[in-house]
Amino acid sequence: MLAEGREAVIHEWGDGLVLRLMRSPDAGPQVARSTAASESARVAGVRTPRVVDVIEVDGRPAQILERVDGPDMFAHLAANPLRLPRAARQLADVH
């Protein structure tokens, strides 16, 4: 396991990929929205991991994503708190 959050657990998944495995087996619609939002963001020029595939693992929906190394968003914003308002606006625009 690389990371975990309220909704998903992130696992290494082969060379240069990660698996974002949802905790709930009912999260299929959420994964579909997330996949569409990620692709829209990429098309708009936002640097975001590419969704390689959407699969099911042990009855739970999952995304296979490009792995992006570096600090997570929360660590970046904690180190740069003045960027928080702009980041919040950008996240709202994407979602």
Give a quick rundown of the structure.
The protein has a single domain (3-69), classed as Phosphorylase Kinase, domain 1 (2-Layer Sandwich).
Task: Write up what this structure looks like.
This protein is α+β, with helices and mostly antiparallel strands. It has a single domain, classed as Phosphorylase Kinase, domain 1 (2-Layer Sandwich), CATH 3.30.200.20. 36% of the residues lie in helices and 28% in strands. It contains three helices and five strands; from the N terminus they run βββαββαα. The chain has helices at residues 28-43, 73-79, 84-94; strands at 3-4, 8-12, 17-22, 51-57, 60-66. A five-stranded antiparallel β-sheet has the order 1-2-3-5-4, covered by helices on one side. It is globular and about 40 Å long. The relative contact order is 0.16.
List the helices and strands and how they pair.
Elements: E1 3-4, E2 8-12, E3 17-22, H1 28-43, E4 51-57, E5 60-66, H2 73-79, H3 84-94
Antiparallel strand pairs: 1-2, 2-3, 3-5, 4-5
Question: Which keywords apply here?
Answer:
5 strands; single chain; Phosphorylase Kinase, domain 1; 3 helices; alpha+beta; five-stranded antiparallel β-sheet; 95 residues; globular
